[in-house]
C-alpha cells in the first residue's frame, strides 16, 4: 500500500480518500471472485453426478442434521439413538460435535424465514463449498496481518480457494466436520494474531468465541488448543513477553476453555485430559511472568530479576511434576490413543488396530504433498524463511505452525488439511515478495493482484507495470540489493513469465486433481463405456433402497462398520456398528462373526438379533474396496479381543499368502465372510471358470454353501450382497442337519438348472 | 426432511386405505335398509374384463318400474368390503349415451358388515311400466389374488378371481348372464356350476377361446349370490399404487408448468418362494420371459415436455431414459431393483412443460386464464396400474383468485389453500383435489382450472425481490457508515 | 494458583500490616533455596525488597488502579475459598465448581488485562486502545464469560 501511495504516475483513483475506496472496492471484487472460483471448483461432483452426500461420515452428519431440523434443538441435544449400535444404542447428542449440524440447521431456518425453503439436503451438500469461500476470505485476513503487501493476502486467498489439499475435504457433498472447521481454524488464528498484535480483550474474546465454535465443530480443535499456548510459550522464552500477550492469551484461555466446555462431548476434558494441559500450564506461567514483570517495573533491581527468574523456573518445574503426578494417579486422563499414534506411527498398528484400519490415519506418502499442494510446497519454505527475516510476534506463529503442521501432515494423511492453510499463507508471502520485487515501481501491487488471483492469461497489467517500472529505475535501485540484472527487461519478463506459467500450471493441476481425484461421491461409482460415455454404477443405493423399502422398519442389519452410517442414512435401518468407532468390543464382535465358522457366527448373530447381513463384494466388477480386502482388519480387531478364537495366522497360507482360491486355508474358506462373498458366485460362470477380478484368482470349482443364512438380495453388479439370517429350524434341528436333509431336493434342482444352460448354449 | 415427509405420507396412505370407506359415505342409511322393490331387471348382461390387473365390469341392464309411482332411485348392491375398492362407477342410458352420466353416489349403511349400495339417480323419474336400459360400468381394485401366493422367481403366476355368477342386484332379475374376458387360455381352474341352474341346461360355464360365459339364468331373487371363481395365468405385475401425489405448478413469469408426481407403488403379485436370486435373474434376462416383477415404467408425456427427473428418497435414479422428438416424449424408468411381489417402490418423477401449451387467456376479461392439464399422468403399462388414492394439487401463481375447476373424474374432496414457497409473501393459491380408486385408463381425463390473475398480483414478485435487494443494500450502507470504534469517539471528544 | 498467592502478598497489608512481615519471610525463604546462594543477607534483602515494593506501590499507583487491585484480591480470595472447599468437601457437582472457579479466574485475568491496558506505562504497547475502549472490551469479555458460566452451571 505504501508503494501505491508513493506512486507518481498513478491516476486519481489510486490516491487519497477516493483511492482508498477504489482499492477497497477492487479488493472486495477480487475476493468475491476468488470465493466464487472456490465454490465453483467444488461443484464438479454435483455436475458430474448429482446433489448427493458423499462417502461415509457425511451420511451420519446428514442424518443428524435432518433429526435436528425435524425435532428441534433440545431434542437433538438429548437425542438417544436406538437405531445404531444395536442393542446398546448411542447417546448421539452427547457424543458428537454439533457445530456442523447446528450451522446448517440455522442456515435452513434463516432461509425458510426469507421464504426460500431450500431442501436440507441441498444445504448440506453445498455447505462445504460455501464455507470454502469464507475460508479464502479468512486466509486473506490472516495473511494481511503478516505482511504489508496487500497482494500476498489476495494470493493466499486464491491459493486457499483452489488448492487440492483443502478441496479434498470440501467438495460439494462432503458434508463433514472439516467443511466448516478449516474456516474456523483459519479465522481463529486470524483473530488470535489480531489479539496478540493489538492486545485487545475484544479480539481475544472473539478469538475465544470462534475457538468455542471450532470446538463444537471438529475434534481437531486440539491443534489450536496446543498451538496457541506453544506460540505464547515460545514468545516468553524468546523474552518477548508483553502485556499484549498476557491480555490476549489469558482472555482467550479463560473464555475459550469455558466455551469449549459447553459442548457436551468435550465436557470436562479441558481440565481433565493431558491434551489440554499445555494450555493450562502456559496460562499459569503467564500469570507468573506477568506478576514478575509487574514487580520488576516496581523495583528494577538486577539481582532481584535473577532471583525471580529462578523462582519462575522452579514453579514451572513443580507444576509440571504436579501434572505428571496427577496423570499417573489418574485424575487427569492420559493422552488419547490417536495422539500417541501421532508420535509413533507404529503405535496404532500394534495397540489400536481400529485406528490403523482407517486409511486416512495412515502416514502420508511423499507424492501426496505434491499432489495436494503442487507448487506451493516449494514456495512454502521460502515463505517461512521470510518470516524468520522479519521475526515479529505473528511471524513466530507462522514458523511454529508450519513446523508442527508439516510434521503432523507427514504422520497422518488427513492432517494434510491443517497444513494447507499455512502453506498457502507462506507461499503467498513468498510469491508476492517475488512479484513485488520484480514488478514494483509506482503501482505494481495493484498490477500484481489481478494477475495473481484471477490467474489468468491477462498479461496486460504485467507489461504495463513493467513499463512504469522502467521509467523510474532510481527508486528501485535503492530498494533492494544492487544487482543490475534484476532491473533489466529480460530478467523481469523472464521471472514474471515463469511465475505466470507456474500459476497457470497450478490452476490446471488443481482443476485436474479436483475433477479426477476428489469429486467422486464413492456412493455412486462411475465407469466409462467403450464409446466414452459415462456409465453409473449405483449398486450401493440399489441395495440400500431395497432394504429401506422391503424390510421391516426395525430389521437389524449387520455389516462391517464402514457401511454403518450409510445404512443408517440411506436404508434407514438399525445397525450393529458404524463409523463412530467408540466401542471396540462391539466392532470386534462383528469381526468375529464375520471371520468365524457358521456354527460360531450363528449364535452371535442370534444374540444380537441380526436380521440381515450386508457385505460388499467387488469380485465381479473388479471393485477393490470390498470386504474381502478389508477382511484382515476384521480378523485383527477380533483377535484383539478373542486371541484364542480368531487368529490372523490361520487366514494365511503356509507360505504367508492371503489367498481366496483353491489354496486358501480351511479357516478362510469356512469363514462367514468368505462364504457370503462367493456364495452362488460360480453359477455365473461356466463350470470351474469362476474368477475373482479383484484378486485375480480362480475360485474353487465347488462354491461355498451356507446353512444358517440365505441370500436375500444381490445388487446388479454384485457389489452389495444381503443375506437373511434364518430363524431357528421348526423341528429343532441345527441348520446343518436340515440342509443335509434337503440335499436331495437341491440336487435335482441344480441338475435342472444345468440343463437349461446347455439349452441356451445350443 | 424427505424422510419425515415420506413417513408422514406413508401414514396418510395407511389412513387412506380405511378412509376410502368413510370419506365417501355421504349418504348414511340405517343398517336395516332394504331397497324398495319397485324395480325389476328385465334383462341383464354383465361383462367382466380380466385382461388388466384390475377388474372392469360393465353391466347392461334393462330396468322396468313395477311400482305404482314414478321412481328415480336405483340401488346397486356391493358385498361388504368391496365398496371401498370400487372406482369410476358410471351409469348412463345405453340408448342415449350422449346425454352423459347419471348421478351415482355411495349410500352405505352405517354397519360395515352388511351390504352396501351405490345409489343411481335417474335424471327423469321412470314412469310405471316404463323401461330403461342402464349401462353401468366400474372398476374393482385389488381383486385379483395370486394363487399360489408364493412362486419361484421365474415361475408363471396364476391369479384367482372370485365373484358371483349371479350379478348382484337389489331387485328381481328375470334373465341374466355373465361374460368373462380373460387374457389367456391357460385357465387351470374355473368353478363349474350344475347344469340344472342354467336356463338352457348347457354346460356352465361355456368356454370360447379366452372368454367364459356363465348363464343365462332366469328368475334370480334380489340379493341372490352364487360364488364362483376362475384361476388363470397372469404372469404380470399387479402394480398397485397406494398413493399418488401430483403437483402442477403454474408459473406465469417463468412461462412454465412444472409437473411432479410422487408414487408409492407396491406389487401385489405372488411373493418369492425363496429369496431373490441375482444369478437366476441375470440368466433369465437373456430370454426376457414374462415375470411378475415390475421392471419398467413408461410415461408417455405430452409432446414438448422437457427436463425430466426421476429421483427417490436417496437421490437420483440413473436408470431412466427420456426419448423426445416431434411426435412423442416418452419417459422410460427402471426402478432401482425389479419390484417383485410384496415389494415396494416409491419414487418421484417430474418434468416441465411450456406454459402456452396448457394455459389460455380467456377472451372475456384480460385477467382471466384457463389451465387444462391431465388429471393424472402416471405410467402407462400394458397390464395396467391401479391407484388407491390420487391427490392432485394445482399450484397457481401467487395472487390468483376466483378459482374454479371442472373434471370428469369422480372426486371425493377439493380444497383451496395457500402454499408458501420460494420468495412468496402471501403464498400461492393452491387447489387440492382428491380422487380414490382410479386406474390408468383415466390418464387422458382432463382437469380444467379457471382463475383470475390480476395485473397487480403479477408484479408482486419482482417488487418483492427488488425490495429485498434494496433492503440489503441499505442495511449494508448503514452498517458500513456506522462508526462503532470507541477510541475515535474519544479522540473527537 | 501460585501466581495469585504471590500477588496477594503486597496487597494484603492495608488491613494487617503485621502479616506482611510474617508472610514475606516465607516467600523469601523459598527464594534463596532456588537460587542456591542462600544466605541471611538474602532474607534481609527480600524483606527490604518487599517493603520497597509496597512503598513504591502505595506511592505510585493511582486510586483507580488500586480499586482494580482490591477487586482482584477479592476475586482471588473467592477463588481460593472455592478451591479449598473443593479439596475438603469434594467436587461433586463438578460443573458447578468449575464454572464458579473459572468465573473468578476469568474475571481476575480480565481485570488484570484491564489494569494493564489502562496502565500509563504500557501506553506504547496499546497504541490503539483508549481507556474507554479498554473498559468496553472489559465489559464485553465479562459478558461472554458470565454467559458461559451461567450456561455451564446448570
From TrEMBL, chain A:
Output this protein's name: Dolichyl-diphosphooligosaccharide--protein glycosyltransferase subunit STT3
Cofactor(s) the protein needs: Mg(2+); Mn(2+)
Q: Which parts of the sequence belong to the STT3/PglB/AglB core domain?
A: 557-606
Q: Which UniProt keywords apply?
A: Endoplasmic reticulum, Glycoprotein, Glycosyltransferase, Magnesium, Manganese, Membrane, Metal-binding, Transferase, Transmembrane, Transmembrane helix
Its UniProt entry gives the catalysed reaction(s) as: a di-trans,poly-cis-dolichyl diphosphooligosaccharide + L-asparaginyl-[protein] = N(4)-(oligosaccharide-(1->4)-N-acetyl-beta-D-glucosaminyl-(1->4)-N-acetyl-beta-D-glucosaminyl)-L-asparaginyl-[protein] + a di-trans,poly-cis-dolichyl diphosphate + H(+)
Lineage at the top is: Eukaryota, Fungi, Dikarya, Ascomycota, Pezizomycotina
Q: In which pathway does it act?
A: Protein modification; protein glycosylation
Look at the named UniProt entry and state the broad enzyme category this protein falls under.
Answer: transferase
User: For this chain's UniProt record, which GO biological process terms are given?
Assistant: post-translational protein modification; protein N-linked glycosylation via asparagine
Q: How does it sit in the membrane?
A: Multi-pass membrane protein
Identify the EC number(s): 2.4.99.18
Q: State the protein's purpose.
A: Catalytic subunit of the oligosaccharyl transferase (OST) complex that catalyzes the initial transfer of a defined glycan (Glc(3)Man(9)GlcNAc(2) in eukaryotes) from the lipid carrier dolichol-pyrophosphate to an asparagine residue within an Asn-X-Ser/Thr consensus motif in nascent polypeptide chains, the first step in protein N-glycosylation. N-glycosylation occurs cotranslationally and the complex associates with the Sec61 complex at the channel-forming translocon complex that mediates protein translocation across the endoplasmic reticulum (ER).
Q: Care to name a GO molecular-function term for this sequence? A: metal ion binding
Q: Name one Pfam family in it.
A: STT3
Q: Which domain of life is it from?
A: Eukaryota
| This protein's record includes keyword Nucleotide-binding | no
Source organism per UniProt:
Extremus antarcticus
Where do transmembrane segments lie in this chain? 28-49, 95-111, 123-142, 148-167, 179-195, 245-265, 277-295, 307-333, 368-388, 395-413
Q: What is its main location?
A: endoplasmic reticulum
Subcellular locations according to the entry: Endoplasmic reticulum membrane
Which portions of the chain have biased composition (kind: Basic residues)? 745-762
TrEMBL record, chain B:
Highest taxon of source: Eukaryota
Signal sequence bounds: 1-17
Asked if Signal is a keyword of the record, the answer is yes
Query: Cross-referenced InterPro entries, in alphabetical order?
Result: Ribophorin_I (IPR007676)
Name the pathway: Protein modification; protein glycosylation
Q: State the UniProt keywords alphabetically.
A: Endoplasmic reticulum, Membrane, Signal, Transmembrane, Transmembrane helix
* Broad class of the protein's primary localization: endoplasmic reticulum
Q: Which GO terms describe its biological process?
A: protein N-linked glycosylation via asparagine
Which sequence ranges are marked TM in the entry?
463-482
Q: Where in the cell is it found?
A: Endoplasmic reticulum membrane
Give me the Gene Ontology terms describing cellular component. Answer: oligosaccharyltransferase complex
Membrane topology qualifier:
Single-pass type I membrane protein
Job description of the protein: Subunit of the oligosaccharyl transferase (OST) complex that catalyzes the initial transfer of a defined glycan (Glc(3)Man(9)GlcNAc(2) in eukaryotes) from the lipid carrier dolichol-pyrophosphate to an asparagine residue within an Asn-X-Ser/Thr consensus motif in nascent polypeptide chains, the first step in protein N-glycosylation. N-glycosylation occurs cotranslationally and the complex associates with the Sec61 complex at the channel-forming translocon complex that mediates protein translocation across the endoplasmic reticulum (ER). All subunits are required for a maximal enzyme activity.
Q: How would you summarize the oligomeric state and partners of this protein?
A: Component of the oligosaccharyltransferase (OST) complex.
Please state which protein family the record places this protein in. Belongs to the OST1 family.
Task: Report the protein name in the record.
Answer: Dolichyl-diphosphooligosaccharide--protein glycosyltransferase subunit 1
From TrEMBL, chain C:
Please verify whether the record's keywords include Membrane.
Answer: yes
Q: Which GO terms describe its biological process?
A: protein N-linked glycosylation
Q: Where is this region: Disordered?
A: 1-42
Compositional bias of type Low complexity: which residue ranges?
A: 17-39
Family note: Belongs to the DAD/OST2 family.
Q: Subunit structure, briefly?
A: Component of the oligosaccharyltransferase (OST) complex.
Q: What does this protein do?
A: Subunit of the oligosaccharyl transferase (OST) complex that catalyzes the initial transfer of a defined glycan (Glc(3)Man(9)GlcNAc(2) in eukaryotes) from the lipid carrier dolichol-pyrophosphate to an asparagine residue within an Asn-X-Ser/Thr consensus motif in nascent polypeptide chains, the first step in protein N-glycosylation. N-glycosylation occurs cotranslationally and the complex associates with the Sec61 complex at the channel-forming translocon complex that mediates protein translocation across the endoplasmic reticulum (ER). All subunits are required for a maximal enzyme activity.
Q: What is this protein called?
A: Dolichyl-diphosphooligosaccharide--protein glycosyltransferase subunit OST2
Source organism of the structure: Extremus antarcticus
Q: Name the gene behind this protein.
A: OST2
Amino acid at each position: 500500500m505504501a508503494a501505491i501511495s508513493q506512486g507518481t504516475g498513478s491516476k486519481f483513483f489510486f490516491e487519497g480518500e477516493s483511492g482508498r475506496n477504489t482499492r477497497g472496492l477492487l479488493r472486495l471484487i477480487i475476493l468475491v471472485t476468488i470465493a466464487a472460483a472456490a465454490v465453483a471448483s467444488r461443484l464438479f461432483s454435483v455436475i458430474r453426478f448429482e446433489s448427493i452426500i458423499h462417502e461415509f461420515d457425511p451420511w451420519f452428519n446428514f442424518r443428524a442434521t435432518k433429526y435436528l431440523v425435524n425435532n428441534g434443538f433440545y431434542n437433538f441435544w438429548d437425542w438417544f439413538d436406538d437405531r445404531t449400535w444395536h442393542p446398546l444404542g448411542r447417546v448421539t447428542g452427547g457424543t458428537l460435535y454439533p457445530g456442523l449440524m447446528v450451522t446448517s440447521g440455522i442456515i435452513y431456518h434463516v432461509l425458510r424465514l426469507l421464504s426460500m425453503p431450500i431442501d436440507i439436503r441441498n444445504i448440506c451438500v453445498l455447505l462445504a463449498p460455501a464455507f470454502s469461500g469464507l475460508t479464502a476470505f479468512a486466509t486473506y485476513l490472516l495473511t494481511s496481518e503478516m505482511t504489508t503487501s496487500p497482494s500476498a493476502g489476495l494470493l493466499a486467498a486464491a491459493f486457499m480457494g483452489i488448492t487440492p489439499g483443502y478441496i479434498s475435504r470440501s467438495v460439494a457433498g462432503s458434508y463433514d466436520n472439516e467443511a466448516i472447521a478449516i474456516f474456523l481454524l483459519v479465522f481463529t488464528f486470524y483473530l488470535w494474531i489480531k489479539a496478540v498484535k493489538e492486545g485487545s480483550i475484544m479480539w481475544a474474546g472473539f478469538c475465544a468465541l470462534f475457538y468455542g465454535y471450532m470446538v463444537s465443530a471438529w475434534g481437531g480443535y486440539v491443534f489450536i488448543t496446543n498451538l496457541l499456548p506453544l506460540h505464547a510459550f515460545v514468545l516468553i522464552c524468546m523474552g518477548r513477553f508483553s502485556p499484549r500477550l498476557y491480555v490476549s492469551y489469558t482472555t482467550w484461555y479463560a473464555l475459550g476453555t469455558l466455551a469449549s466446555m459447553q459442548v457436551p462431548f468435550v465436557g470436562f476434558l479441558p481440565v481433565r485430559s493431558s491434551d489440554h494441559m499445555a494450555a493450562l500450564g502456559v496460562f499459569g506461567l503467564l500469570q507468573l511472568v506477568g506478576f514478575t514483570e509487574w514487580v520488576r517495573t516496581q523495583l528494577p533491581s538486577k539481582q532481584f530479576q535473577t532471583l525471580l527468574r529462578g523462582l519462575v523456573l522452579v514453579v514451572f518445574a513443580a507444576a509440571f511434576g504436579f501434572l505428571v503426578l496427577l496423570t499417573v494417579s489418574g485424575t487427569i486422563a492420559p493422552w488419547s490413543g490417536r495422539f500417541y499414534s501421532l508420535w509413533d506411527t507404529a503405535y496404532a498398528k500394534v495397540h489400536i488396530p481400529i485406528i490403523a484400519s482407517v486409511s486416512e490415519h495412515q502416514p502420508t506418502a511423499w507424492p501426496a504433498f505434491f499432489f495436494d499442494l503442487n507448487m506451493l510446497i516449494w514456495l512454502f519454505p521460502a515463505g517461512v524463511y521470510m518470516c524468520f527475516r522479519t521475526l515479529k510476534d505473528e511471524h513466530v506463529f507462522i514458523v511454529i505452525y508450519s513446523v508442527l503442521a508439516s510434521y503432523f501432515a507427514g504422520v497422518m494423511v488427513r492432517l494434510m488439511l491443517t497444513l494447507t492453510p499455512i502453506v498457502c499463507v507462506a507461499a503467498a508471502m513468498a510469491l508476492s515478495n517475488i512479484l513485488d520485487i520484480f514488478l514494483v515501481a509506482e503501482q505494481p501491487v495493484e498490477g500484481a493482484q489481478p494477475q495473481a488471483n484471477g490467474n489468468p492469461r491477462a498479461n496486460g497489467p504485467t507489461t504495463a507495470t513493467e513499463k512504469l517500472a522502467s521509467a523510474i529505475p532510481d527508486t528501485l535501485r535503492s530498494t533492494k540489493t544492487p544487482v543490475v540484472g534484476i532491473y533489466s527487461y529480460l530478467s523481469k519478463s523472464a521471472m514474471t513469465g515463469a511465475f505466470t506459467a507456474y500459476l497457470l500450471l497450478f490452476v490446471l493441476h488443481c482443476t485436474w486433481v479436483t475433477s479426477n481425484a476428489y469429486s467422486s461421491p464413492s456412493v455412486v461409482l462411475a465407469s466409462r463405456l467403450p464409446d466414452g460415455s459415462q456409465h453409473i454404477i449405483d449398486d450401493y443405493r440399489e441395495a440400500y433402497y431395497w432394504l429401506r423399502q422391503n424390510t421391516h422398519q426395525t430389521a437389524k442389519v449387520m455389516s462391517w462398520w464402514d457401511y454403518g452410517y450409510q445404512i443408517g442414512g440411506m436404508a434407514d435401518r438399525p445397525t450393529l456398528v458404524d463409523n463412530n468407532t467408540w466401542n471396540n468390543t462391539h466392532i470386534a464382535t462383528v469381526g468375529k462373526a464375520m471371520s468365524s465358522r457358521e456354527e460360531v457366527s450363528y449364535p452371535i448373530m442370534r444374540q444380537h438379533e441380526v436380521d440381515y447381513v450386508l457385505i460388499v463384494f467387488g469380485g465381479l466388477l473388479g471393485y477393490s474396496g470390498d470386504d474381502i480386502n478389508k477382511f484382515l482388519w476384521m480378523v485383527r480387531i477380533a483377535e484383539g479381543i478373542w486371541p484364542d478364537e480368531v487368529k490372523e495366522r490361520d487366514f494365511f497360507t503356509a507360505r504367508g499368502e492371503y489367498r481366496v482360491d483353491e489354496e486358501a486355508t480351511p479357516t478362510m474358506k469356512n469363514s462367514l465372510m468368505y462364504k457370503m462373498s462367493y456364495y452362488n458366485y460360480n453359477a455365473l460362470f461356466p463350470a470351474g471358470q469362476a474368477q475373482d477380478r479383484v484378486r485375480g484368482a480362480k475360485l474353487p470349482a465347488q462354491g461355498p454353501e451356507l446353512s444358517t443364512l440365505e441370500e436375500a438380495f444381490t445388487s446388479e453388479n454384485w457389489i452389495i450382497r444381503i443375506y437373511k439370517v434364518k430363524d431357528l429350524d421348526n423341528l429343532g434341528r441345527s441348520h446343518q442337519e436340515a440342509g443335509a436333509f434337503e440335499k436331495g431336493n437341491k440336487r435335482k434342482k441344480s441338475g435342472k438348472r444345468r440343463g437349461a444352460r446347455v439349452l441356451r448354449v445350443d | 426432511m424427505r424422510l419425515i415427509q415420506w413417513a408422514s405420507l406413508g401414514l396418510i396412505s395407511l389412513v387412506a386405505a380405511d378412509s376410502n370407506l368413510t370419506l365417501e359415505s355421504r349418504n348414511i342409511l340405517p343398517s336395516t335398509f332394504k331397497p324398495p322393490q319397485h324395480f325389476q331387471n328385465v334383462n341383464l348382461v354383465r361383462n367382466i374384463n380380466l385382461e388388466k390387473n384390475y377388474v372392469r365390469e360393465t353391466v347392461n341392464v334393462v330396468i322396468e318400474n313395477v311400482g305404482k309411482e314414478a321412481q328415480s332411485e336405483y340401488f346397486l348392491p356391493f358385498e361388504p368390503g368391496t365398496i371401498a375398492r370400487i372406482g369410476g362407477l358410471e351409469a348412463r342410458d345405453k340408448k342415449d349415451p350422449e346425454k352423459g352420466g347419471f348421478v351415482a353416489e355411495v349410500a352405505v349403511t352405517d354397519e360395515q358388515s352388511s351390504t352396501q349400495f351405490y345409489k343411481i339417480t335417474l335424471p327423469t323419474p321412470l314412469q310405471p311400466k316404463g323401461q330403461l336400459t342402464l349401462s353401468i360400468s366400474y372398476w374393482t381394485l385389488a381383486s385379483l389374488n395370486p394363487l399360489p401366493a408364493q412362486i419361484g422367481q421365474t415361475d408363471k403366476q396364476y391369479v384367482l378371481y372370485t365373484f358371483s355368477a349371479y350379478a348382484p342386484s337389489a331387485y328381481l332379475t328375470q334373465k341374466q348372464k355373465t361374460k368373462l374376458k380373460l387374457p389367456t387360455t391357460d385357465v387351470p381352474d374355473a368353478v363349474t356350476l350344475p347344469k340344472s341352474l342354467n336356463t338352457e341346461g348347457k354346460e356352465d360355464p361355456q368356454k370360447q377361446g379366452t372368454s367364459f360365459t356363465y348363464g343365462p339364468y332366469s328368475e334370480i331373487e334380489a340379493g341372490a349370490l352364487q360364488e364362483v371363481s376362475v384361476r388363470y395365468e397372469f404372469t404380470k405385475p399387479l402394480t398397485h399404487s397406494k398413493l399418488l401425489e401430483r403437483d402442477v405448478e403454474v408459473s406465469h413469469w417463468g412461462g412454465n408448468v412444472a409437473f411432479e408426481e410422487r408414487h408409492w407403488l407396491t406389487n401385489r403379485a405372488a411373493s418369492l418362494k425363496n429369496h431373490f436370486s441375482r444369478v437366476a435373474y441375470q440368466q433369465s434376462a437373456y430370454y426376457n420371459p414374462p415375470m411378475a416383477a415390475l421392471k419398467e415404467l413408461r410415461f408417455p408425456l405430452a409432446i414438448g415436455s422437457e427436463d425430466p427427473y426421476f429421483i427417490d428418497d436417496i437421490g437420483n435414479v440413473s436408470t431412466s431414459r427420456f426419448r423426445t422428438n416431434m411426435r412423442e416424449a416418452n419417459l422410460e424408468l427402471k426402478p432401482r431393483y425389479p419390484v417383485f411381489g410384496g415389494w415396494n417402490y416409491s419414487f418421484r418423477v417430474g418434468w416441465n412443460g411450456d406454459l402456452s401449451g396448457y394455459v389460455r387467456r380467456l377472451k372475456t376479461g384480460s385477467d382471466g386464464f384457463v389451465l387444462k392439464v391431465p388429471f393424472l399422468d402416471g405410467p402407462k403399462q400394458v397390464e395396467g396400474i391401479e391407484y388407491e388414492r390420487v391427490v392432485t394439487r394445482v399450484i397457481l401463481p401467487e395472487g390468483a383468485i376466483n378459482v374454479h375447476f371442472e373434471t370428469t373424474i369422480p372426486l371425493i374432496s377439493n380444497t383451496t389453500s395457500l402454499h408458501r414457497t420460494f420468495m412468496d409473501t402471501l403464498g400461492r393459491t393452491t387447489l387440492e383435489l382428491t380422487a380414490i380408486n382410479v386406474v390408468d385408463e383415466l390418464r387422458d381425463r382432463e382437469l380444467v382450472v379457471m382463475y383470475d390473475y390480476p395485473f397487480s398480483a403479477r408484479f408482486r414478485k419482482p417488487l418483492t425481490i427488488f425490495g429485498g435487494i434494496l433492503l440489503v443494500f441499505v442495511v449494508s450502507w448503514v452498517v458500513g457508515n456506522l462508526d462503532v470504534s470507541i477510541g475515535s469517539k474519544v479522540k473527537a471528544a | 494458583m501460585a501466581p495469585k498467592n504471590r500477588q496477594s502478598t503486597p496487597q494484603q497489608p492495608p488491613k494487617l500490616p503485621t502479616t506482611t512481615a510474617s508472610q514475606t519471610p516465607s516467600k523469601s525463604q523459598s527464594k534463596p533455596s532456588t537460587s542456591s546462594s542462600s544466605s541471611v543477607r538474602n532474607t534481609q534483602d527480600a524483606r527490604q525488597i518487599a517493603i520497597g515494593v509496597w512503598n513504591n506501590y502505595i506511592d505510585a499507583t493511582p486510586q483507580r488502579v488500586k480499586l482494580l487491585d482490591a477487586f482482584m484480591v477479592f476475586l482471588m480470595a473467592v477463588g481460593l475459598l472455592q478451591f479449598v472447599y473443593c479439596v475438603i468437601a469434594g467436587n461433586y457437582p463438578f460443573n458447578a465448581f468449575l464454572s464458579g472457579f473459572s468465573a473468578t479466574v476469568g474475571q481476575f485475568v480480565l481485570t488484570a488485562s484491564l489494569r494493564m491496558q489502562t496502565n500509563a506505562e504500557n501506553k506504547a504497547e496499546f497504541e490503539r486502545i483508549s481507556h474507554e475502549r479498554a473498559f468496553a472490551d472489559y465489559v464485553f469479555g465479562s459478558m461472554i464469560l458470565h454467559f458461559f458460566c451461567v450456561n455451564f452451571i446448570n
